[in-house]
C-alpha cells in the first residue's frame, strides 16, 4: 500500500461545530475525531500513513483533483476530477448535527463516464483498533469498543471487504448522483436515525449563506475575511460555546522535530482573541455563547484559573504520547492532552479582562456575575503580577518575568479602571487599580526596555526579543508613535524576521545549535509564527506605515492554501505550512489586520 499522506497545504476542512475533518486534494479524508474534537481519531492517516485510517473517494487510479473550492461562503467542499473518460465532482460536508455526527460525500457525474473507487479504512482509537465490519440491511457497520460507524451508500454501489478495508466500486455518468453517509454512534445503541444527504446539503448551504451574510466587514479582502471567520466558527464547539485552538494534534512546528502539541482544547488566550475577532466582525451570538462558556469554565477560586480547559470546561487535560503513531512526516512524538494546562501564564488575566471589556462596549447583554468574577480575578492578579511565569508562548524552560505578561497585567488593571469609570454603579476599588496600573507601567518601562538598543525585550534583563511586544500599541500600553514602540517594531523586524516573516523569539536551533538550551526549553527550531507577522502589520499600520503593512498583509494572504486556510507557522525556506492546521490564532490575525486596514482607510 503506498503510504503517502498529503502535504499540509493540500488539506481542506469540513466540520459540524462539534468536530472537524481534513480532506486531501486526492479525495482522502485523513483526519477525523468522533464524536468531539478531542475524541480519539477514527481516521488518523495524517499522523502516520494510510493504515492509521482514512477514507478515499475519487476516480479509480486518479491522483489529486483538478480543482476544488468551497461552495460559496460555506464549509461544503467541492472537488472536481477531469479524467480521460469524463468529469466528476465529489461534494464533502458534515451536516449540522441532530443526534449523531455524519460525514456526507456526494458523487456527481458531470461529463462522460467515470469509474469511481472508494476505500474506507476505519481505525478507532487513533489508528490502533481495527473494527469488525458486517453488513446490516443497507449499511456496513464497523464496531470496536465504544465506537460504531455506519456506512450507507446507494444500492448500485458494489461494496466489499479487502485488506481490512471496505471498498466501493461504481461508475457515474453525466447527471448521476451517488451519495455516501458515514455516521458515528455509541456501539451499545441501536442504529442511528438516517438523514437525507441531499436535504442536508441544501440545509447546510442555506445555513452557511445566512451566517456569512451577517459579516459586517465590506472591505477589499472580504473573501479572505469571511473564509477566516467560517474557519473560526468551525472551531467552535456548539453545545458549550467553547473554541478549540485547532482541530488537530501534533502537526509539527518543524518537519521531523519534536515540537508537536495537541491543540484540541480551549485556551483562554486563543478563545478571547477569537471572540474579539468575531465580535468586531458582527457575530454577537457566538461571542455571547463563548462569554457564557468562559463564566462557567473559570467559576471558582481565581488562583485556580487554568490557561486552558476542555470543550465543556473540563480541567484535566493530562499530556501523554501515542507511540504507535509515527507522526506527520515522521515528526514524533504524537501527543494527546497538553502539559501547558498546569502552567502559570499571567497574560491570560489581561486577555479575559479585555474580552469582557470589549463585550460590554459592544452592547452584549450584561451577565450579572461577570463583574463578580472579574473582581475576584483582579484581587488575585494584584498579588501575583510580580511573579515570573511561563508566558504566552508556554515555554517549558524556567519561569521568567516576561514583558508581555506584565503588559497584559497592565491591560487587566486598565480595563478594570475603565469599567468603573464607565459604570460607577459597579462595586470595586478604582483607586487601588489605578495605582496597580501605574506601578506595572513604570516597572515595565524601567525593567523591560533596553535603552541602548531602543527596544522592549522578551523578559526583564534579557537581551532576547519577543514578537509579542508588537502588541504594546494595540492594547494601549503606549501610543504607536512612541519612540520606544517604533524602536521595538524595528528591532523585532531586524532580529526576528525570517525572510520578511516574524518568528515569536529566537531558538538555539536558529543559530545552528540543537542542544535544548533554548528559552523555551525545547531542542531545535521552528518556522515563522504567522500571527506574529499579522501583529507586525497591525503595529506598522498603527504607526502610520500603511504601505509596509499592506505589503506584509498581501504576502500573508499569499501563504493561505488554495481554500484559504492557514496553519500556525510557515517555513519560508521550504515554502511549507507548519504546525496545527487550521489554527485559530492565524485566522484571528488575518481578520484583525483586515479590519485595522479598513479602519485606517476610513480615517484617510
Ligand atoms: O511552544 C511550546 C508550546 O507550544 C504550544 O503553545 C502554542 O499554542 C497555543 C495554542 O494555540 C498558544 O496559546 C500558545 O501561545 C503557543 O505558544 C503548546 O500548546 C504548548 O504545550 C507548548 O509548550
From TrEMBL:
Gene3D superfamilies: 1.50.10.10
Span of domain Trehalase-like N-terminal: 6-153
UniProt catalytic activity: alpha,alpha-trehalose + H2O = alpha-D-glucose + beta-D-glucose
InterPro entries in UniProt: 6-hairpin_glycosidase_sf, 6hp_glycosidase-like_sf, GH15-like, Trehalase-like_N
EC number: 3.2.1.28
Molecular function in Gene Ontology: alpha,alpha-trehalase activity
SUPFAM superfamilies cross-referenced by the UniProt entry: Six-hairpin glycosidases (SSF48208)
Top-level EC class as recorded in UniProt: hydrolase
One Pfam family here: TREH_N
Pathway of action: Glycan degradation; trehalose degradation; D-glucose from alpha,alpha-trehalose: step 1/1
Domain annotation GH15-like: ranges: 219-594
Keywords on record: Carbohydrate metabolism, Glycosidase, Hydrolase
Cofactor: phosphate
GO BP, sorted A to Z: trehalose catabolic process
UniProt similarity note: Belongs to the glycosyl hydrolase 15 family.
The protein's name in its UniProt record: Trehalase
Species this protein is from: Streptomyces sparsogenes DSM 40356
Amino acid at each position: 500500500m503506498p503510504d503517502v499522506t498529503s502535504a499540509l497545504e493540500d488539506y481542506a476542512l469540513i466540520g459540524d461545530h462539534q468536530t472537524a475533518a481534513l480532506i486531501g486534494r486526492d479525495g482522502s479524508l485523513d483526519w477525523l475525531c468522533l464524536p468531539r474534537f478531542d475524541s480519539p481519531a477514527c481516521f488518523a492517516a495524517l499522523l502516520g500513513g494510510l493504515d492509521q485510517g482514512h477514507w478515499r473517494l475519487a476516480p479509480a487510479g486518479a491522483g489529486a483533483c483538478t480543482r476544488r473550492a468551497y461552495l460559496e461562503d460555506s464549509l461544503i467542499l467541492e472537488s472536481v476530477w477531469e479524467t480521460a473518460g469524463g468529469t466528476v465532482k465529489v461534494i464533502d460536508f458534515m451536516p449540522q448535527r441532530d443526534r449523531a455526527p455524519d460525514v456526507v460525500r456526494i458523487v456527481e457525474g458531470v461529463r462522460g463516464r467515470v469509474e469511481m473507487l472508494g476505500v474506507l479504512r476505519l481505525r478507532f482509537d487513533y489508528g490502533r483498533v481495527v473494527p469488525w465490519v458486517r453488513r446490516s440491511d443497507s449499511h456496513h457497520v464497523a464496531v470496536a469498543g465504544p465506537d460504531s460507524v455506519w456506512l450507507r451508500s446507494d444500492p448500485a454501489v458494489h461494496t466489499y471487504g479487502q485488506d481490512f478495508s471496505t471498498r466501493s466500486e461504481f461508475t457515474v455518468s453525466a447527471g448521476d448522483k451517488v451519495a455516501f453517509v458515514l455516521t458515528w454512534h455509541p456501539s451499545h445503541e441501536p442504529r442511528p436515525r438516517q438523514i437525507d444527504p441531499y436535504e442536508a446539503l441544501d440545509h447546510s448551504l442555506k445555513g452557511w449563506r445566512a451566517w456569512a451574510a451577517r459579516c459586517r466587514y465590506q472591505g477589499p479582502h472580504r473573501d479572505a475575511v469571511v473564509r477566516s471567520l467560517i474557519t473560526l466558527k468551525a472551531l467552535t464547539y456548539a453545545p458549550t460555546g467553547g473554541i478549540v485552538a485547532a482541530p488537530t494534534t501534533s502537526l509539527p512546528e518543524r518537519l521531523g522535530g519534536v515540537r508537536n502539541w495537541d491543540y484540541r482544547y480551549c485556551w483562554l488566550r486563543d478563545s478571547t482573541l477569537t471572540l474579539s475577532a468575531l465580535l468586531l466582525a458582527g457575530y454577537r451570538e457566538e461571542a455571547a455563547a463563548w462569554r457564557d462558556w468562559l463564566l462557567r469554565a473559570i467559576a471558582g477560586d481565581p488562583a485556580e484559573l487554568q490557561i486552558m480547559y476542555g470543550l465543556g470546561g473540563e480541567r484535566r487535560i493530562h499530556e501523554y504520547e501515542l507511540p504507535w503513531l509515527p507522526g506527520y512526516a515522521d515528526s514524533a512524538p504524537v501527543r494527546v492532552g497538553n502539559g501547558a494546562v498546569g502552567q502559570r501564564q499571567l497574560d491570560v488575566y489581561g486577555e479575559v479582562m479585555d474580552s469582557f471589556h470589549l463585550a460590554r462596549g459592544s452592547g452584549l447583554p450584561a451577565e450579572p456575575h461577570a463583574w463578580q468574577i472579574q473582581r475576584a480575578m483582579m484581587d488575585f492578579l494584584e498579588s501575583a503580577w510580580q511573579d515570573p511565569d511561563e508566558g504566552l508562548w508556554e515555554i517549558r524552560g524556567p519561569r521568567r518575568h516576561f514583558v508581555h505578561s506584565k503588559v497584559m497585567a497592565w491591560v487587566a488593571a486598565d480595563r478594570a479602571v475603565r469599567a468603573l469609570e464607565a459604570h460607577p454603579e459597579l462595586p470595586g476599588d478604582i483607586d487601588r487599580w489605578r495605582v496597580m496600573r501605574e506601578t506595572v507601567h513604570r516597572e515595565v518601562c524601567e525593567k523591560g526596555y533596553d535603552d541602548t538598543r531602543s527596544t522592549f525585550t522578551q523578559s526583564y534583563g534579557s537581551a532576547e526579543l519577543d514578537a509579542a511586544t508588537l502588541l504594546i500599541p494595540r492594547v494601549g500600553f503606549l501610543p504607536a508613535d512612541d519612540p520606544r514602540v517604533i524602536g521595538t517594531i524595528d528591532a523585532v523586524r531586524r532580529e526576528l524576521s525570517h525572510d520578511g516573516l516574524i518568528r515569536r523569539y529566537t531558538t538555539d536551533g536558529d543559530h545552528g545549535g540543537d542542544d535544548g538550551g533554548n528559552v523555551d526549553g525545547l531542542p531545535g527550531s521552528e518556522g515563522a509564527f504567522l500571527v506574529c507577522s499579522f501583529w507586525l502589520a497591525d503595529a506598522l499600520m498603527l504607526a502610520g506605515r500603511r504601505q509596509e503593512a499592506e505589503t506584509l498583509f498581501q504576502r500573508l494572504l499569499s501563504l493561505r492554501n488554495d481554500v484559504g486556510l492557514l496553519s500556525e507557522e510557515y517555513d519560508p525556506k521550504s515554502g511549507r505550512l507548519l504546525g496545527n492546521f487550521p489554527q485559530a490564532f492565524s485566522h484571528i490575525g488575518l481578520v484583525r489586520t483586515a479590519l485595522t486596514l479598513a479602519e485606517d482607510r476610513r480615517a484617510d
